[in-house]
Design brief:
- The strands form seven sheets. A six-stranded mixed sheet has the order 10-9-12-17-14-15, with no helix packed on it. A six-stranded mixed sheet has the order 21-20-25-30-27-28.
- It is mainly beta.
- The chain is 11% helix and 37% strand.
């Protein structure tokens, strides 16, 4: 935006034509700085064919994956969602800070009631200080399996990427999961029986399984590159329940951002993403002109748990050469499915690009256990979990239950009692050997809609401690409405005396979804500067279904800029 000396403007404006031109130009550049983008999302069924079978899936605008939205830092998004499907739906804008606009965050029964079939709701929010790769997805039951898309935030006009090499091209890769069944039926059956849901039948890249699956080669995704040029590849793990390794045959990847936060660049041959996480990499086409497989497969950390042990592929194809499309692509070497050292080596290399504004002192020190559990089967029922039990999951021995008559944010805003309580424990009710041999008396959590209240402006530290109840597992934990610094991670039980001294308080990575290591812990810090109700949950959808979640109430601060906006007039009612 242009700035003018006001005294000069007053003298110039004695000549009216020049005055009008000046203010027109000033207004033009004002508009160029920030734009409002309007989108219509029609949630509807569409018939698609995958793995030799035709299925009706739920989509946005008939697209699978859904439309990619591109904005700039400072822009406003207005998305009108029309629900023409037979299921309730909400849309979550994963990673968007939603400063004072919690009504637009999207998790069902947390910040809004669902959009019923035939209903509409308009999400409106402004991007504030964020650049990079995020995404949007349904946040209602398991609709996220097919209702998702990329949300790309470019730098402001006149700014550029802070990368060592400015890319000439960009490509977005959405990793997903595919079931030869209706995903809603899959999770409903699991809820009914108490067993784990059926695993997926394939992984996908931009909605396509790739060459290694039946009836899939014709539609394998092709990413074109030109020799010697550098491309920015935006990788999003949109899978419902699986962490994934990702690589490109014979090519190095320079990591430059995660979760829409820039990082110190580093080079690797493989990256690992949990569901909900994004990674931006630079790729230079410096290999002999040919065709190379882009590939992803599971990182499955839970011992003896079934998982989809297949590999999805796309093709990196050099285009400014005589490369034949019939040439068989080179297949990369992917880590073993249980290669925790490789996963750890990747996450522990992440650093912020400069000294970070991580809180040096802490007002709220919280300790949350995260893990699975088993509940006894109700009297008169037959359950198909281990030894006739039902699977469950919890934080601090509380299995989170969504309300059904109000959203939590509406109840909080209107002062409605009986919807939730604010007695979520700041630490486990009982200390135990979290990653050791846990007594069976601790395997069955209590249930409730219990929240934790944070004062506006407080500095918060949360130790996320995995447990070995039933099994240890990597848990990707997502916090709505916030980015946070990952100041430490490790294996075993967190030890405040020894592990705190190892915290990185200089340049820790900023994320919105952190992978709690299998049989280990991660520690995050942030400032509670965004009023509203904010969900924290495991982004393995089977785990949030079982209750691995909680939520924070962040009270209003002082003044308009620290206060939650009023609810929209078209906010859905329960």
């Amino acid at each position: 935006m242009l700035h003018y000396n006001t005294n000069s403007v007053k003298s110039w404006c004695s000549w009216l034509p020049l005055c009008l031109i000046l203010f027109f130009v000033s207004g033009f550049f004002e508009l160029a700085v920030a734009e409002t983008h309007f989108h219509n999302f029609v949630v509807q069924a569409k018939s698609v064919k995958r793995l030799c079978n035709t299925h009706n899936i739920i989509t946005v605008n008939g697209q699978y994956p859904g439309p990619t939205l591109e904005l700039r830092n400072g822009d406003t998004l207005v998305a009108k969602v029309q629900n023409k499907a037979k299921y309730n739906v909400t849309i979550h804008w994963h990673g968007i800070r939603q400063m004072r606009t919690a009504w637009a965050d999207g998790p069902e029964f947390v910040t809004q009631c669902p959009i019923r079939p035939g209903g509409t709701y308009t999400y409106r929010f402004t991007i504030q200080g964020q650049e990079g790769t995020l995404w949007w997805h349904a946040h209602s039951s398991w609709l996220r399996a097919t209702v998702y898309g990329a949300l790309i935030i470019h730098p402001k006009q006149g700014s550029s990427y802070p990368f060592p090499t400015i890319p000439k091209h960009e490509a977005t890769i959405l990793l997903g999961e595919w079931w030869n069944a209706n995903p809603i039926d899959v999770i409903n059956q699991a809820r009914k029986t108490g067993a784990a849901p059926n695993i997926s039948d394939a992984y996908t890249i931009n909605g396509q399984p790739g060459d290694l699956y039946s009836c899939s080669s014709q539609d394998t995704v092709i990413i074109p590159v030109n020799s010697s040029e550098t491309s920015l590849i935006r990788v999003i793990n949109s899978a419902l329940n699986q962490q994934l390794f990702f690589t490109i045959a014979n090519h190095n990847l320079t990591v430059v951002a995660v979760d829409a936060s820039y990082t110190k660049p580093f080079t690797t041959s493989v990256i690992m993403l949990g569901p909900g996480q994004t990674t931006d990499v630079l790729l230079t086409a410096d290999q002999p002109p040919s065709r190379y497989y882009i590939a992803a497969r599971a990182y499955a950390s839970a011992q003896n748990a079934p998982f989809d042990n297949t590999t999805t592929t796309a093709i990196l194809q050099y285009t400014n050469t005589n490369t034949s499309t019939s040439l068989k692509p080179l297949l990369p070497n992917l880590p073993a499915y249980n290669d925790t050292p490789t996963a750890t080596a990747f996450t522990t290399r992440l650093r912020s690009p400069a000294k970070a504004l991580v809180p040096a002192t802490v007002d709220e020190s919280l300790f949350f256990t995260v893990g699975l559990g088993l509940n006894p089967c109700s009297k008169g029922q037959t359950c198909q979990g281990p030894n006739g039990t039902r699977f469950t999951a919890s934080m601090n021995n509380v299995s989170f239950v969504l309300p059904s008559t109000f959203s939590i944010l509406q109840a909080h805003h209107q002062g409605v009692n009986g919807v939730f309580t604010v007695d979520f424990p700041a630490a486990p009710p009982l200390q135990f050997d979290y990653t050791g041999n846990v007594s069976r008396t601790l395997w069955s959590p209590v249930t409730g809609t219990k929240l934790y209240k944070l004062q506006y402006g407080s500095s918060v530290q949360i130790v996320l401690q995995g447990t070995s109840i039933f099994t240890t597992e990597n848990h990707p934990v997502h916090l709505h409405g916030y980015d946070f610094y990952v100041v430490g991670e490790g294996f075993g039980n967190f030890n405040a005396k020894t592990d705190t001294a190892k915290f990185n308080l200089v340049d820790p990575p900023m994320r919105n979804t952190v992978g709690v290591p299998v049989g280990g812990w991660a520690v995050i810090r942030f400032v509670a500067d965004n009023p509203g109700v904010w969900l924290m949950h495991c982004h393995l959808d089977v785990h949030i279904t079982w209750g691995l979640a909680t939520a924070f109430i962040v009270e209003n601060g002082v003044g308009e800029l620290q206060t939650l906006e009023s609810p929209p007039l078209d906010l859905p009612q329960c």
